[in-house]
Specification:
The protein folds into three domains: 103 residues, Beta-Lactamase (2-Layer Sandwich), CATH 3.30.450.20; 37 residues, no CATH class; 63 residues, Histidine kinase-like ATPase, C-terminal domain (Heat Shock Protein 90, 2-Layer Sandwich). The chain is elongated, with a radius of gyration of 35 Å. The strands form three sheets. A five-stranded antiparallel beta sheet has the order 2-1-5-4-3, with helices on both faces. Strands 6-7 form a two-stranded antiparallel ribbon. Strands 8-9 form a two-stranded antiparallel sheet. The protein has 275 residues and is an alpha+beta fold. β1 and β2 form a beta hairpin. The chain is built from ten helices and nine strands. The longest helix is centred in the N-terminal third of the chain and has 24 residues.
């Protein structure tokens, strides 16, 4: 008696574990008969895609149709069914009555008897709308990074501290990854740029150089094509309170200048800057 009870408990445990695995692997199940007509849907099918089972039971894929599916994807799916091939990763959309769009992920296994006769399909379906939304968010985020990089003078890069390597480099930054000598000689000239017209102002390094010099510092560029570019900025150390106080006293009685600077420049952008 105890043996029968233990065996029954083991069977129940195995069935429960199997059901847990099934529930975790997909949202619903479906079957087709030997004529590729839908013959079964599990309970959650109507709940998730919003399509009544009666609308599909007894019908083929061609008869039910799927609105807005990619024509190439649809043709491949129908070809698989006609050839009685198992298929995976068939993704299509369904629009709910409230206007929300679902992304559905379908797998199907072709079933044959011992004699090799085709018996139909058994398959699973999963709602991957949340995963698709996350993928779209990542794509949009990457696009925002690219647009932001184009607005910066020196581009944008990302460094993975765990792997200790660069995992992203914008095109703008890649363009200055190693400059030829003639380019480096003009790198800090105002309005000099190697970019296409309208893609850059040529003021990035020149402004950095100007800020460094105005702060009493300096900037150097070391670059070699194929090896990279290093820009070093040198700034003066912070002054002590005594030094700053003495400087402030001297600035209280500045000596005015009486010079006049006359600028002749045929470039309108440069004239606007010096004005």
């Amino acid at each position: 008696m105890d043996t029968r009870v233990n065996t029954a408990d083991m069977v129940n445990d195995v069935e429960k574990r199997l059901q847990d695995f099934i529930d975790a692997s997909s949202d619903w199940f479906w079957e087709m008969d030997e004529r590729c007509r839908f013959s079964y849907f599990s309970e959650r099918f109507t709940e998730i895609p919003g399509v009544p089972q009666q609308a599909l039971l007894g019908k083929t894929r061609q008869e039910t149709g799927i609105p807005d599916v990619d024509p190439l994807v649809w043709k491949q799916h129908l070809d698989d069914l006609t050839a009685h091939r198992s298929f995976r990763n068939f993704v299509h959309t369904r629009t709910l009555p409230d206007g929300r769009e679902l992304y559905l992920f379908i797998n199907g296994k072709a079933i044959f008897d011992d004699a090799g006769n085709f018996c139909g399909y058994r398959g699973t379906g999963t709602d991957i709308t949340a995963e698709k939304a996350a993928d779209n968010a990542r794509i949009e985020s990457r696009a925002l990074y690219e647009r932001a990089a184009k607005l910066t003078r020196l581009g944008h890069w990302e460094w993975d501290e765990i792997e200790n390597r660069c995992v992203f480099c914008s095109e703008e930054l890649a363009r200055i990854h190693g400059m030829a000598p003639d380019v480096m000689a003009k790198a800090i000239d105002p309005f000099f740029t190697t970019k296409e017209i309208g893609e850059g102002s040529g003021l990035g390094l020149s402004m950095v150089y100007g800020v460094a010099k105005q702060s009493g510092g300096d900037m150097t560029i070391c670059s070699e094509p194929g090896h990279g570019t290093t820009v070093r900025i040198y700034l003066p150390r912070v002054k002590s309170e005594e030094e700053q106080m003495a400087e402030n006293i001297a600035e209280q009685n500045p000596q005015p200048g009486n010079e006049t600077i006359f600028v002749i420049e045929d470039n309108e952008d440069v004239r606007d800057m010096v004005n």
